[in-house]
Design a protein that fits this description.
- The protein is mainly α and 262 residues long.
- It has one domain.
- It is 85% helix and 0% strand.
- It is built from nine helices and no strands.
- Helix 3 (59-81) runs parallel beside helix 6 (142-179).
- The protein is elongated and about 65 Å long.
Length: 262
């Protein structure tokens, strides 16, 4: 009888310990990645290729997400504000909502879905086909050749994607405001510019850099630790997207608390 009662608790305990152990392993992997960033050699060709794949090719999906999010946000704020005769706050709230939260978070999640899965699948396939072992045979550190360029590229490119996404999202709210909600174009733009402060935009860019580091690090981590065969690569890809998304949401709360709690 006691075994029946304690078995679920034992399963829960093992799950918690396993999750904590996984977080610890990822933390060590991320710390090792940062340490390699500070030591030569550095593979510039891999870095530039990663910038193209992570930054430029992610721009369409981030832009489409931002423009529809900005338009929907403006519509929701207008509908809610009309209950209190506060429709005029639409430009200000759209601007602060996009720059502080929705721009970096939704951009990070979209990049996580696209980039973390791609990196995990690419490196996982290289591991399965023993290309990672071949790098070691050629006296090339896989961490420096595969992980460092991708992590650095994502960390640098993600704030740029967030900045573009913020601009496109605010434009989406602006277009909806002047075409559907009867806002004056000049007044809408003036209210947006006058209300935004430097740290509203800057905090989102800092979040973008953190999210970029998380996305690439998680993708590389699961790729390097992929199981054998197609099933192992698929599992690594799925785990990378899930872990990156959860870490983005968790770190977003921690950064928001640090930036705006006072």
């Amino acid at each position: 009888m006691s075994a029946v009662l304690t078995h679920p608790l034992a399963l829960l305990g093992r799950s918690v310990i396993g999750a904590l152990a996984g977080i610890g392993r990822f933390g060590l992997f991320a710390a090792e990645t940062v340490s390699h960033l500070l030591r030569p050699p550095f593979y510039w060709r891999e870095f530039l290729t990663a910038c193209l794949q992570i930054g430029w090719l992610s721009l369409p999906v981030v832009g489409m997400t931002a423009v529809f999010t900005g338009a929907a946000l403006a519509l929701q704020i207008y509908a809610g504000g009309s209950r209190f005769s506060a429709e005029a706050v639409v430009p200000q709230i759209v601007a602060i909502g996009m720059t502080r939260e929705l721009g970096p978070v939704l951009g990070g999640l979209m990049v996580a879905a696209r980039v973390a899965s791609s990196i995990a699948a690419e490196i996982g396939t290289m591991k399965v086909t023993e290309q990672v072992d071949a790098l070691v045979t050629l006296s090339t550190n896989p961490m420096k050749y595969l992980t460092v360029p991708r992590v650095l590229a994502a960390t640098l490119c993600m704030p740029l994607l967030v900045g573009v996404g913020d601009s496109i999202g605010i434009m989406g709210g602006y277009l909806l405001g002047i075409t559907r909600l009867d806002f004056n174009s000049a007044t809408y733009l003036k209210n947006t510019i006058d209300f935004l402060q430097f740290w509203d935009v800057g905090s989102g860019l800092v979040k973008g850099a953190v999210f970029g580091f998380i996305v690439a690090s998680v993708g590389c981590y699961h790729g390097m630790n992929s199981g054998r065969g197609a099933q192992g690569v698929g599992a690594a890809t799925k785990a990378a997207v899930v872990m990156a998304s959860v870490l983005i949401l968790a770190s977003n709360y921690l950064l928001t608390e640090a930036f705006f709690s006072s």
